[in-house]
Design goal:
Elements (H helix, E strand, L loop, with lengths): L3 E2 L2 E2 H12 L10 H12 L7 H7 L13 H16 L7 H18 L16 H7 L7 H7 L1 H5 L5 E4 L5 E2 L4 E5 L10 H28 L25 H13 L5 E5 L14 H12 L3 E4 L9 E4 L2 E7 L1 H7 L13 E4 L18 H16 L2 E3 L2 H21 L2 H24 L6 H38 L6 H4 L3 E2 L1 H10 L7 H9 L3 E4 L4 E4 L1 H7 L3
Parallel strand pairs: 3-11, 5-9, 5-10, 6-9
Antiparallel strand pairs: 1-2, 3-4, 7-8, 12-14, 13-14
Helix pairs in contact: 1-5, 2-4, 5-14, 5-16, 6-7, 14-15, 15-16
């Protein structure tokens, strides 16, 4: 007897079915006939349409709590399943597809080391810099803050490259998306980021004043303009820009030390305002370009126009709620955009909701403790390599590959590639910030960060990505005609044939196809074993195809 279907235990399949279609409640007196009938109709196609198999996997909801059952109730239970088997066969039901997909998504989340309600736990011992930056927030905010500080930290690296295990060079690009329900405390990330960015803010201020003065002296329409100072560089951007300003900042940052521009917004929708196009599609394009430091900018011929092209170095922090996250990135889940994000979340237990979040004090002492790490990042330059980080990223790659196979999650596999890159970049930044020292706290944090990022992505985008990846395979499968007979074993029963037809999306009873195969000499029917057997002629013809 089958104990599972494609690695999913029937008990899990049935439990998920009740969760999706009966509010998590099992059948009881009054509804058990109807609900058991519907369940049997739903799962019979993966039980070989076999009565004995169905009675093995479908619980007897007529039985008493101690497992005893009267003969009348047992007869009613069996009769209900028999009636379900008499229903016309129409392939795999929609409900069953939804149940199996939900279980696959759950498997992807479990592969990340967490549960359906809790992400992977943070390491107890953190790298000193992360410990400092998270010390003033309650424990349930620490994972979000530990992830959210990297865009600001990365903005302090300039002219620095890191070589990944595949020999591709990367820069410290971090684009953090914090997802959490309303009023849960997403603002807890702001204070640490403010202190990290304070030196850049102070450096930007005189440059803003110089730029404003130059504009005042050179208004639009002036015949002979003074050259714009080439050493103006403003890294912190507001969330209401024109294309010209955004591109000017990119070029200025590149020409003044290959620096990063940085944006922080309270709602992800505000990212649409960083350019004049004000569109979600443009934000997606910028994210993809920024992760790869692709060229961006514009070329104009007008004397008053901003013209210039440079690698896009853009780090940002954005927050949103789960529904808004799914809505905003709806068209970007399967084009590489979401994969390039570092996603974090805040999840509080119901018991914690009444506990007011009390944060610690951010003061001069905090700034003084932070300063040495910032100074090391600012002083870094050139190509930096770390053998320990490289080895760890290779180990994680192998682990992810095995996890994707074990949990049969294509979404997990796809998302794991860039999640590994992002966590490795965090490790490289921490390596530099701690004086080019690597230790177990950094290694443990990198491993956790990768799993945490994956867990958040699977939680908020996994279902959609699994569905779209499955549809891609389906499109490829249907892109050309398939020889159904070649998909079947050399000897097969009618039941196996019907099951294969259903899996391939074929309609009807298929009798005409069987007759054609027999007429053409591809197939013979063995009356004794009641099996169809492929002929040697057919097997030789298609052996090498």
């Amino acid at each position: 007897m089958q104990k599972d279907y494609n690695g999913m235990a029937f008990g899990e399949i049935i439990a998920k079915y009740w969760e999706l279609y009966n509010g998590g409640k099992v059948p009881t007196v009054g509804d058990r006939n109807a609900l058991t009938f519907e369940l049997a109709v739903t799962i019979r196609s993966i039980c070989g349409y076999d009565l004995e198999q169905l009675m093995q996997v479908i619980p007897n909801y007529w039985a008493a709590p101690d497992g005893t059952c009267t003969q009348d109730d047992m007869d009613e239970y069996q009769k209900t399943i028999e009636n379900a088997l008499k229903e016309p066969r129409k392939g795999m039901p929609y409900r069953l597809k939804q149940v199996l997909q939900a279980l696959k998504s759950q498997a992807g989340i479990k592969a990340c080391g967490g549960t359906m309600t809790a992400p992977p736990p943070m390491p107890k011992k953190l790298p000193p810099l992360i410990k400092l930056l998270t010390k003033n927030v309650p424990w349930y905010y620490k994972p979000a803050v530990a992830s959210a500080v990297f865009p600001a930290l990365g903005a302090h690296l300039h002219g620095v490259k890191f070589r990944y295990w595949d020999n591709v060079e990367h820069e410290a690009t971090f684009m953090n998306l914090l997802v959490g329900r309303q009023s849960i405390g997403k603002g807890s990330i702001k204070k640490p980021i403010d202190y990290i960015m304070e030196d850049i803010r102070q450096r930007d201020q005189p440059n803003r004043e110089r730029e404003a003065e130059w504009k005042r002296k050179n208004p639009t329409g002036k015949q002979k303009k003074d050259p714009r100072p080439a050493d103006i560089c403003i890294q912190m951007l507001i969330d209401n820009l024109t294309d010209a300003v955004f591109n000017q900042r990119i070029v200025d940052a590149h020409n003044n030390g290959q620096r990063y521009i940085f944006t922080i917004v309270d709602e992800v929708e505000a990212l649409k305002k960083v350019t004049s196009k004000n569109s979600v599609d443009e934000v997606g394009l910028l994210i993809r370009k920024a992760f790869d430091n692709s060229l961006a900018g514009q070329e104009r011929v007008g004397a008053d126009s901003v013209s210039g092209i440079a690698p896009l170095r853009w780090n940002f922090n954005a927050s949103t709620t789960p529904p808004n996250a799914r809505k905003f990135f709806y068209k970007m889940v399967n084009d590489g955009t979401v994969g390039r994000l570092d996603v974090a979340t805040i999840i509080r237990n119901d018991d914690d909701d009444d506990e007011p979040p009390i944060q610690g004090i951010y003061d001069e002492q905090f700034a003084a403790e932070l300063k040495p790490y910032i100074d090391r990042l600012e002083a870094a330059n050139g190509l930096i390599e770390c053998p320990q980080a490289k080895k760890l990223s290779l180990d994680i790659r192998i682990e992810n590959k095995e996890a994707a196979k074990l949990f049969e999650s294509e979404a997990y596999r796809v998302l794991s590639y860039r999640a590994n890159v992002i966590s490795w970049l965090k490790g490289m930044l921490l390596y530099v910030a701690h004086g080019y020292r690597w230790d177990k706290t950094i290694a443990d944090f990198v491993r956790w960060s990768e799993q945490y990022n994956l867990w958040c992505k699977m939680l908020y985008f996994g279902d959609q990505l699994e569905k779209e990846l499955r549809e891609e395979v389906e499109i490829q499968r249907r892109s050309g005609p398939k020889n159904l007979l070649r998909l079947l074993p050399d000897e097969f029963t009618r039941e196996q044939y019907m099951l294969m037809r259903q899996q391939q999306g074929r309609q009807g009873d298929g009798d005409s196809a069987l007759r054609q195969w027999q007429t053409r000499g591809h197939l013979v029917y063995d009356e004794v074993s009641r099996r169809y057997c492929k002929t040697e002629q057919f097997k030789q013809k298609y052996a090498n195809l």
